[in-house]
């Protein structure tokens, strides 16, 4: 497969693969060891923390968390069992909201400083200010490209 890529494309793709594989793995290990959360569970809690009233539709959590609805539903069930999230029936339309509980809010507030230290140490500290800006532009461009190719639906539920 990489024989069809030129040397610059091989370098770029190799770097993307390294980042995509190593960073989430390290964050997963660190969050599990220190806080008993996977990276995806942390992401769900952080998204709920940042949302109005600390609640969000499961379908929106899936889209914003870049996971399938079934994965988000499974994670929300686990977070419900430990008391960090509760499901709330919506009064308008269809769907179910996930709502952050006080203990879930405390957990995400506790984990966030360590998470940010890890993100800085693993990625951002390796770049100067100009490179951080360039990374932001390139990553946003690639994200928009993916949304254009895959749609803005959760992973595995593309529209074509």
Q: Could you characterize what this model shows?
A:
The chain has six helices and three strands. It has helices at 7-35, 39-50, 58-65, 69-81, 102-122, 129-150; strands spanning 55-57, 85-89, 96-100. A three-stranded antiparallel beta sheet has the order 1-3-2. The longest helix is centred in the first third of the chain and has 29 residues, at 7-35. The radius of gyration is 18 Å and the shape is globular.
Topology:
Layout: H1 7-35, H2 39-50, E1 55-57, H3 58-65, H4 69-81, E2 85-89, E3 96-100, H5 102-122, H6 129-150
Antiparallel strand pairs: 1-3, 2-3
Helix pairs in contact: 1-5, 2-5, 3-4
In short, what is this structure?
This protein has 160 residues and is mainly alpha-helical. It has helices at residues 7-35, 39-50, 58-65, 69-81, 102-122, 129-150; strands at residues 55-57, 85-89, 96-100.
Number of strands: 3
Whole-angstrom Rg: 18 Å
First and last CA, distance? 24 Å
- Average pLDDT, rounded to a whole number, is 90
Write the H/E string, N to C.
HHEHHEEHH
Structural class: mainly alpha
Q: Which term fits the overall shape?
A: globular
Give helix % range.
Answer: 55-70%
The biggest beta sheet reads: 3 strands, antiparallel
How many helices? 6
Ranges with pLDDT <50 over ≥5 residues?
A: 154-160
Oligomerization state: single chain
Strand share of the residues? 5-15%
Strand order of the largest sheet: 1-3-2
């Amino acid at each position: 497969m990489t024989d069809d890529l030129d040397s610059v494309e091989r370098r770029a793709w190799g770097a993307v693969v390294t980042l995509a594989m190593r960073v989430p793995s390290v964050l997963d290990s660190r969050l599990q060891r220190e806080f008993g959360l996977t990276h995806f569970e942390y992401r769900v809690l952080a998204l709920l923390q940042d949302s109005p009233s600390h609640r969000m539709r499961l379908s929106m959590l899936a889209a914003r968390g870049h996971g399938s609805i079934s994965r988000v539903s499974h994670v929300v069930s686990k977070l419900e069992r430990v008391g960090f999230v509760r499901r709330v029936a919506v009064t308008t339309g269809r769907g179910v909201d996930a709502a952050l509980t006080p203990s879930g809010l405390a957990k995400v507030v506790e984990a966030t400083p360590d998470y940010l230290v890890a993100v800085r140490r693993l990625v951002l500290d390796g770049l100067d200010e100009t490179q951080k800006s360039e990374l932001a532009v390139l990553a946003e461009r690639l994200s928009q490209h993916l949304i254009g190719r895959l749609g803005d639906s959760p992973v595995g539920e593309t529209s074509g």
